[in-house]
Amino acid sequence: MLLEYVFIAFIAIVCIQFMYYIPLFGSFAFSRQHTNPPSFNKPISVIICAKNEAKNLTKNIPTFIEQNYSDFELVLINDSSHDDTLNILEAFQKKQPSLIKIVNVAANEQFWGSKKYALTLGIKAASHEYLLFSDADCKPISKNWITEMAGNYSDSKELILGYGAYKKINKSFLNKIIRFETLITAVQYFSYAKIGIPYMGVGRNLAYTKDLFFANKGFVNHIKIKSGDDDLFVNQVATKKNTAICTSTNSFTISTPKTSFKNWIQQKRRHISTASHYKPLHKFLLGLYYSSQLLFWMLSAVLLLFLYNWQIVVGLFIFRNILLYLSVGISAKKINEKDLILFLPIYELFLILVQLFIFIKNLSSKPSHW
């Protein structure tokens, strides 16, 4: 009798997974990709916040300086660094005084360690209405990054969600997992935006207007939460009407990923803790997706262990993984992560277990932040 209930629950879980993989994720996977951005030539302020990023800034700032865009400035924020970050920023400014503006943020007891405070000062200092954000450990994939991202601005679109990729490292399972997790996250936030429920973006590649920022009082509503300068702000202000997505290859940024499981787990702990502050609908939809993933693997394992209706279970198992390959696999091709496609179910199962570990760990202790 118990196995019968497990079997019924398994069928229900597969149905829930179908709804996520085809109608929802399919809205992004099967959508047409625009290759040429709309014409946009208004001035842009590119904002990059750095804290102890001397080495990364030396490598990455030139790729922002070399952008093929007619009118832009670089607002470089030094967030109370104690390495050579400020000296490096000043050296770049000396070479490009008309292009680069430096915002040097001193330590502030009220906002100690808050990237949101530093970003707010940078946004206030920006000369232009249209803003584009990235991180010090990122660089644009092409010289047309500003053109591609800013091309999605319009009279109605004030918020643009981009893709921040991670560098590929050969023969590294951790690198595959990091990039798979980034892929799944992107598939989700692009898909939800496609159906009119935008809920997050990544600060590595994000654009919004000054008016949108100040009309919503910036980060005030979550200023006490150290993380979330990107996803919590998007969660607060994004709507069906004001949000656009940009997935052309030339619009991507790329970052160097973590190289140890310990550092990556710590990073993911911060991200997951931030998600607990999302709007109730978003938390429900994201929680249901993860729960259905976990239960799919658990229930299929139990049913196959006891060989209960195993032919049907195997058939549904295969069917559900076909859905995974269809939606996530096609999305992976779309955002140039094709090498992840072959072993999608393996990466998924491993990530589910890691997320379960992180969830339990966060219940017992708080993760550290910027």
TrEMBL record:
Pfam families membership: Glycos_transf_2
| TM ranges | 6-30, 340-360
InterPro entries the UniProt entry points to: Glyco_trans_2-like, Nucleotide-diphossugar_trans
- The residues covered by the Glycosyltransferase 2-like domain are 45-175
Any single GO molecular-function term of the entry would be: glycosyltransferase activity
Keywords in alphabetical order: Glycosyltransferase, Membrane, Transferase, Transmembrane, Transmembrane helix
Family, similarity comment: Belongs to the glycosyltransferase 2 family.
Name of the protein in its database record: Glycosyltransferase, catalytic subunit of cellulose synthase and poly-beta-1,6-N-acetylglucosamine synthase
Q: Which organism is it from?
A: Lutibacter agarilyticus
